[in-house]
UniProtKB/TrEMBL annotation:
It comes from the Bacteria. Residues 49-98 form the LysM domain. This is LysM peptidoglycan-binding domain-containing protein. It holds the Pfam family LysM. InterPro entries: Bact_Kbp (IPR052196), LysM (IPR018392), LysM_dom_sf (IPR036779). The lineage of its organism: Bacteria, Pseudomonadati, Pseudomonadota, Betaproteobacteria, Burkholderiales. Keywords: Signal. The keyword Signal applies. PROSITE patterns: LYSM. Residues 1-23 form the signal peptide.
Amino acid sequence: MKKFSTIAIALTFPLTLSMTAVGQETSNTTNTAPPALSSKCQFLPNAPDKHVVVKGDTLWGISGKFLQNPWCWPEVWGMNKDEIRNPHWIYPKQIVYFDRVNGRLRLANPFDGAATGITKLSPQTRSMGLEGNNAIPAIPNNLIEPYLSQPLIIEKDEFAAAPRIVAAQEGRVYMGKGDKVYVRGELKNGTSFQVFRPGVALKDPDTREIIGYEAVYIGTVKLDRKAKTEDGVDTFTVVASKEEMGIGDRLVPIPPTPIINYVPHSPEREVKARVVAVYGGVSVAGQNNIVSINRGSTTGIDVGTVLELGRYGQVIADKTNDKKPIRLPDEMYGQLFIFRVFKNISYGLVMQVTDVVNVGDIVRTPEK
């Protein structure tokens, strides 16, 4: 099977530069040996001594120059949970050094012409949008931007309670931009909503129970007038329409603009999951495709979690011992980068695979 190329995954990384001379940094750390890296997070034998960050670089790509597994970035930087969830920025012209003495990566000060200093990571919260200056984005926007701002799924317990379009102006059946629509349901003080139509029911491969519905994005509406009476309806105007809206279509609040500021990392808890569906209704996925899995925030998965993809080992007859059945080991063939998380379902970008992804394949915590 042809090996797919590795996708470039990026990170937004605000940075506070704390200048320390190389000699001083070394003298301060030689007395205390750093914790040993796990076997899966060792540096590559041919890792370079340094890498100059350029525009278009990604965290995943930079990590891959130094590490056997790019998701080990937090471990080699000594990052804690808060720093993973509220990471710093990394900019072009900074230099990533491989500190071989301490077995860690360091950043050089890009504002020092001689680039002779080594910087330490210093926590600092800073919020920026998707196009914040020259900071490297987390994941290429063209790959996942539509999946960040539009509803992907409506979980089973949310579907019944979602506000719904019950009628249209002048008795119309379908509505487009500028038309009035009438809505019943709890708005929870919201004024701007996305309209969706329930699509394919997503079933848990283990239990066969419906855990959600893929949401077919229709458009957006804005509240004009609240209902005056208990049996009244709320009046909305169609602001944008990808396709015609109809009676029975549902509403979800427009989510805030996402700030992509997460770090690839292994999950804190052990994860055992399955591939629920390949987004778009196809049966198999390859690199850069989006798949959903049957685990979410309730099982400790968060944005940036990296999981292994694999296939259950086959059960075959042992031809050397009366053909008794034996199970071959599971075959792991790639990695999945989680970028959007719901309660019981998560969506991930397929990357670094040596085989195609099938619905029902296993997803688990990377072995260390």
